[in-house]
Amino acid sequence: MIVFKKYINSEFGLEAIIAEGDDKLAYRVMFWDTDADAMVHQILTESNERAEKYALDFVGENFEMEAVA
């Protein structure tokens, strides 16, 4: 799986990872609780804009973005 971006909120221990999707939907957003080291949710979507909206809604305002691919 190719990871495109990571959004990290260290203050709250949250991370959203945007990666390649499956054969029907292009993008996968994985939501992580880094304090618990567990994925709490995953969404597949058709557009990069929607994937970024989901990621930003999850991590909140004080985040760092890491472009991976």
| Overall 3D shape | globular
| Total helical elements | 1
What is the CA-atom radius of gyration, in angstroms? 11 Å
The sequence of SSEs as H and E is EEEEHE
The total of beta strands comes to 5
Name the poorly predicted regions.
Answer: none
Strand order of the largest sheet: 4-3-2-1-5
Which structural class do the helices and strands define?
alpha+beta
Terminal CA distance: 11 Å
* Largest sheet: number of strands, sense, barrel closure: 5 strands, antiparallel
Percent range of helical residues: 10-25%
Q: What is the average per-residue confidence, as pLDDT, rounded to a whole number?
A: 96
Our estimate of the beta-strand percent is over 45%
Outline of this structure?
This protein is α+β, with helices and mostly antiparallel strands and 69 residues long.
Q: What would you note in describing this structure?
A:
The chain has one helix at residues 48-59, and strands at 3-9, 14-20, 27-33, 38-45, 64-67. The chain has 69 residues and is an alpha+beta fold. It has a 5-stranded antiparallel sheet, covered by helices on one side. A hairpin with a 4-residue loop joins β3 (27-33) and β4. It has 1 helix and 5 strands.
